[in-house]
Specification:
It comes from Litoribacter ruber. This is DUF4382 domain-containing protein. Keywords: Signal. With 230 residues, the chain is of the alpha+beta class. The chain is built from 3 helices and 15 strands. The longest helix is centred in the first third of the chain and has 26 residues.
Length: 230
């Protein structure tokens, strides 16, 4: 009987040890995940300009920090860090959408369904009036300069399109900013230059009387941002 008890104990110990080793090996499985940010802007009507809802857009600058992947069920503070930043990206240059790499990191294998990212306003975009903004878009409407910007440092939790993504090998992911979605329901012909300085501004302080347009654009922002594999 003692021999049987000893044998069972030994088998049990071996099973626990094997299970522990398998868990440790699983925990050590990692892949390199790269995340890039890019603008998406569909032309209307011409091929050489970014014309959306009555306005032509030339540049879009964004400041980002605290970018990380979230496993299913994770809270934002548990994100697997891709890059802390802060970063400044010009996602549209001379009317052409751009792609910029945010960062790469070794991520443990798992099921990931969201990307957490925070807008960052401690940026200098090199455009007059852009200091202290986290998103700054330059264009024109009705032959007047158009500036759209925010100082918000909003945290966005971006769902993985078609996700969750099972990450078991190296991955390239994209954080997309869709300008057509961002400006859904916006008629830029309604925007005014309330203070008469020659530039139509849509921004949080309502200097030109465009508060309703600003609020609608900010309301569109979460749905204008997506995470994709392609």
């Amino acid at each position: 009987m003692k021999k049987r008890i000893l044998s069972l104990s030994l088998l049990s110990a071996m099973a626990v040890s094997l299970f522990s080793c398998n868990n440790n090996e699983q925990d050590q499985l990692v892949s390199n995940v790269t995340v890039s940010a890019r603008a998406i802007a569909v032309n209307a009507p011409g091929p050489n300009q970014r014309n959306i809802n009555g306005a032509t857009f030339v540049t879009m600058d964004v400041g980002l920090r605290d970018v990380g992947l979230l496993e299913q069920g994770d809270q934002p503070n548990a994100a697997k860090t891709i890059s802390n930043g802060p970063h400044h990206f010009r996602l549209m240059r001379n009317t052409a959408p751009q792609t910029e790499q945010i960062g790469s990191a070794q991520i443990r294998h798992g099921e990931f369904d969201r990307l957490a990212v925070r807008l960052d306003r401690n940026q200098s975009f090199g455009v007059d009036g852009s200091d202290g903004t986290s998103l700054f878009i330059v264009g024109s409407v009705n032959d007047r300069d158009l500036h759209i910007f925010t100082t918000a440092e909003t945290v966005l939790s971006v769902d993985a399109d078609g996700g969750p993504y099972s990450i078991t090998s190296d991955e390239q992911l994209y954080l997309n900013v869709d300008m057509n979605t961002l400006f859904t329901g916006i008629n830029f012909n309604d925007a005014t230059d309330g203070n008469g300085d020659g530039t139509i501004e849509i921004e949080p302080d309502n200097v030109d009387g465009n508060a309703a347009l600003y609020q609608q654009i900010m309301g569109n922002l979460p749905s204008a941002v997506s995470l994709t594999r392609e």
